[in-house]
TrEMBL record, chains A, B:
The keyword Transferase applies. InterPro entries: Aldolase_TIM (IPR013785), Carboxylase_cons_dom (IPR003379), PCB-like (IPR055268), PYR_CT (IPR000891). It comes from the Bacteria. This is Methylmalonyl-CoA carboxytransferase subunit 5S. The lineage of its organism: Bacteria, Pseudomonadati, Acidobacteriota, Terriglobia, Bryobacterales. Coiled coil: none annotated. Residues 5-267 form the Pyruvate carboxyltransferase domain. Gene3D superfamilies: Aldolase class I. It comes from Paludibaculum fermentans.
Length: 503, 503
């Protein structure tokens, strides 16, 4: 009997986040739900990541309402979300009670599987969220962010898996957000975790397709014992997205592995999204082929385009190569964090600053926080001299405790501030929306009654047709994390530097 | 010590044939040659296939001159070509002396490795070409066209490999022109051929990327003992093209296999062709993602778009689904030929005729020839009733001999006709050009002195800029095989049906 390989479908979350800047409207997903629900997936990722932010920032959609709709439309499916540990879906650490309440509400509104990760792989930053998921009786998936450095080893990943199991995780995800996971390490890591934690521990593998090797990595992970892999329906796959679901099904034919996916359903889902894709042309990633330079540079493609635009703003587009050389240095000084939101932006921006103003002459507030331990701990030792500079510039002491331990209870304050906003409906869900995005939520609450804005456009309409509804399409491509502005003095002149997220 | 996996680079032939309709001008390849030559490839495929036709039909380039230039520009590389057995680079069978002379001249002008195939896998159709290659002291690569049918088995492929070895082939190529080769059969076939023919027999694997599984197939073929694989530099890879060279290099890291390719050279080649690609935008394939339906339909993507346009011409675009259902039936009746030029066009067009006019009410001349054995033999038995119809309609008897055995010596006649053409330079090379393309060569000879026409366009130029030089760009996308027109009577009305090649 061949072993069944389970599949998580990414089309409703990470696929459109990676390929069309998270802009897909709920309205454009609804018609595909019945086929997705009946195709035989282990789970359907449909919430979390950047979708919450995108809903309220661009789509005038209530993310909680989206979740409840998915629950109704996918009655046979496990709903899955991506949760940034102690950051939840926002971009700072929240106090534990907020984490508990968020997880509770997500579970109550229909979420089944919580994939919980921390950008630094600091286990202390996922502990509370995992505890909350278990308490809610849901599936807690502990996540290892895969990266490559002189310090990252198979043994290290196994230790992290063991710690996640100790926290009560129901499964482990190896998350390769930058398509760095090659076939041999994929095999070695899955094999070693299975050996250390037992064959019965579920291992899920999440890879992106950017480098053109990760379909092979999925095969090798499966041969090593992986139980479930993440793919996206082919019409919204590849490039910075994921490997195609249909190809995975076909790849296994004749092997000792098989999926239980219904190919005729997959074909319908594919054809449906092939029709939707052109509506979001203006948000589509330019990258359609593969990029393998990242194996040497360690710099994700999205991060490079960000640094390029930062340099352009300062009339220094010609210094990109210097910045690209500086990134590995900064990453080393910061203790080799994986490069994923938010660490990729923090490291990339500091590299730009180093090249423009001299190495560590000016530190961004975020980079200082990273060096001082306010994001958590890193695998490598952080450079003591740079820590010292951060200490002086930021006037903060380095910490070694779990960052959230320094936070005071904040729920009551968040609740009263949230409820005071015009248009807030008084629910805890609204308070959580406000807690996550205090700058964006007020406007969203005030316009919510106008209903969702679909940014998709009829591709047959003329390019110069009516502007995108909602009026905020000007932010254009790229993920949707808040942009931060700095005023930077250079040779006596002040420069405005904005930092937007990359991955 | 890891085993070295050799690589054949396809960028100068099949990559642009598959992705930009074979339109790349020699001028646009020259600057990359030094890096290609020094990157460490086993061979560089740069000639044959549709390039010969494209040179004289669209580019006003002498294909023999192109070959001599490659010989000079790639002094350290084995030059490789694709040769259609007894068809050479044309679309009919040639008498053996013409085959000998063509191979001799190709060798004399610089060709090293001849990949020889027959669309029907009829070994008798490659025998003479392989003999000629051996006589010229060059590398003869016997080719197995991979396809899937109830009759195609691993054992069958092994038998064909053994026959090719018996003919004196220096290596075997498994050629998967439709991206049908899945990982497990890739492993099984390579393994079985090595076991039957000896470990020392070189096996090369050629796959296209269309279905999204074949990078894994390459990995499995390598694990089974394959010695050399075909890839294309990433900036002109994927879609209906091939897997990216750089990804192959990275894929093997940490495995018991390694390439000896120079990554810094590959990066230069990549960047160079990334700049060239937009110049051929109007010829670029629309397909950038993957298509897995072919696994069920057995119909290559290019063949579908061809049948679509045939149906459209007759105002019957809505009958595509019927035609798609008819193709497997026609293929079965024809003895399960692989679907590759020219069998894909012959089967596809007959399927269109069957749907439009009733099953086998009208046979195309080519389909009748196929049924009667004039293209060679097929693995499956051809349907006796359809053979009978073909016999009646075409007024020809079925044959079982090697088709070329029926041909009379033709070189002297070809030579005198060729030399009589205005602009013919009197060389045997020119006579062979004429022999290959008697309709196109006369015009080419008469315009050759005007020099090559580069159909690439500055992508920053306005779309409505000057028309493509050469004035024959109107043939548009698609491969370059001759188009055949039929006048077909349907319900008393005459319809013009044109048949163009698909793959």
């Amino acid at each position: 009997m061949p072993k069944t390989i389970e599949v998580t479908e990414l089309i409703l979350r990470d696929a459109h986040q990676s390929l069309m800047a998270t802009r897909m409207a709920m309205e454009d997903m609804v018609p595909a739900c019945e086929d997705i629900d009946k195709a035989g997936y282990w789970s359907v990722e449909c919430w979390g990541g950047a979708t919450f932010d995108s809903c309220i920032r661009f789509l005038n959609e209530d993310p909680w309402d989206r979740l409840r709709k998915f629950r109704k439309l996918l009655p046979n499916s496990r709903l899955q979300m991506l949760l940034r540990g102690q950051n939840l879906l926002g971009y700072r650490h929240y106090e534990d009670e907020v984490v508990d309440r968020f997880v509770d509400k997500a579970a109550e509104n229909g979420m089944d599987v919580f994939r919980v990760f921390d950008a630094l792989n600091d286990i202390r930053n996922v502990r509370q969220a995992i505890k909350a998921v278990k308490k809610a009786g849901k599936h807690a998936q502990g996540t290892i962010c895969y990266t490559v450095s002189p310090l990252h080893t198979v043994t290290g990943y196994v230790e992290m898996a063991e710690q996640l199991v100790d926290l009560g995780c129901d499964s482990i995800c190896i998350k390769d957000m930058a398509a760095l996971l090659k076939p041999q390490p994929a095999y070695d890591i899955v094999k070693a975790i299975k050996e250390a934690c037992g064959e019965e521990l579920r291992i899920h593998v999440h890879v992106h397709a950017t480098t053109g090797v990760t379909m092979v990595s999925l095969m090798k992970a499966i041969e090593a014992g992986a139980d479930c892999v993440d793919t996206a329906i082919s019409s919204l796959s590849l490039g910075p997205g994921h490997n195609p679901t249909e190809s995975l099904v076909e790849m296994l034919e004749g092997t000792p592995y098989v999926t239980k996916l219904d190919k005729s359903r997959l074909l319908k889902v594919k054809e449906y999204f092939a029709g939707i894709r052109p509506r979001y042309k203006e948000y589509l990633s330019n990258i359609t082929g593969v990029e393998t330079e990242i194996f040497d540079s360690q710099i994700p493609g999205g991060m490079i385009s960000n640094m390029e635009s930062q340099l352009k703003q300062q009339g220094a587009a010609d210094r990109l190569k210097e910045v690209l050389c500086e990134v590995p240095r900064v990453r080393k000084d910061a203790g080799y964090p994986p490069l994923v939101t938010p660490s990729s932006q923090i490291v990339g921006t500091q590299a730009v600053f180093n090249v423009m103003m001299g190495r560590y002459k000016v530190l961004t507030g975020e980079f200082a926080d990273l060096m001082l331990g306010y994001y958590g701990t890193t695998l490598g030792q952080r450079d003591p001299e740079v820590i010292n500079l951060a200490h002086k510039q930021a006037r903060k002491n380095p910490i070694t405790c779990r960052p959230a331990d320094l936070l005071k209870p904040e729920w009551d304050q968040l609740r009263s501030s949230g409820l005071a906003l015009k248009g807030c409906n008084g629910s805890d869900e609204d308070v959580l929306t406000y807690a996550m995005f205090p700058q964006v939520a007020p406007k969203f609450f005030s316009t919510r009654q106008e209903g969702p804005k679909n940014l998709g456009k009829d591709p047959s309409a003329k390019p110069a047709a009516a502007p995108a509804p909602g009026g905020n399409a000007e932010t254009g491509k790229g993920p949707v994390m808040s942009t931060i502005s700095y005023d930077v003095k250079l040779n006596g002149k002040t420069h405005k530097v904005t930092v937007a997220p990359s991955a």
